[in-house]
Amino acid sequence: MSIQRFEPNGKRLSHVLVHNGIAYVTGQVPADRSQDVAGQTAQVLSQIEELLEKAGTEKSKILFAQVWLKHVVADFAAMNKVWEDWVPADALPARATVEANLAAENILVEIAVQAAVEA
């Protein structure tokens, strides 16, 4: 049983790993936290795209996405606009979005995904 790990973060986690044909991308948060939820979402999706590429897959292969928003009622529409512009219309994954008390006050969005990796 092979597990490939990419982008380790110290002793805590790998930002992406591949096992049994699935890439697991950890929850990604924005680097520039001064932006609004749309700007933060765009950053996070760009990071996810880079990690998926390292794992040998891409956004049209996303199976499931989990989105956490600091303020779901206030920010759901703005986050969705960025998401809808980014995700391929013919490859919509399953997705769940919830409100969460994220790790820092200025983090407005966090997204994790799982994607198929074709051999």
From TrEMBL:
What residue intervals traverse the membrane?
Answer: none
Record's InterPro entries? RutC-like_sf, YjgF/YER057c/UK114, YoaB-like
Query: Could you tell me which CDD domains the record lists for this protein?
Result: YjgF_YER057c_UK114_like_2 (cd06150)
What protein name does the entry list? RidA family protein
Question: Which organism does this sequence originate in?
Answer: Pseudaminobacter soli
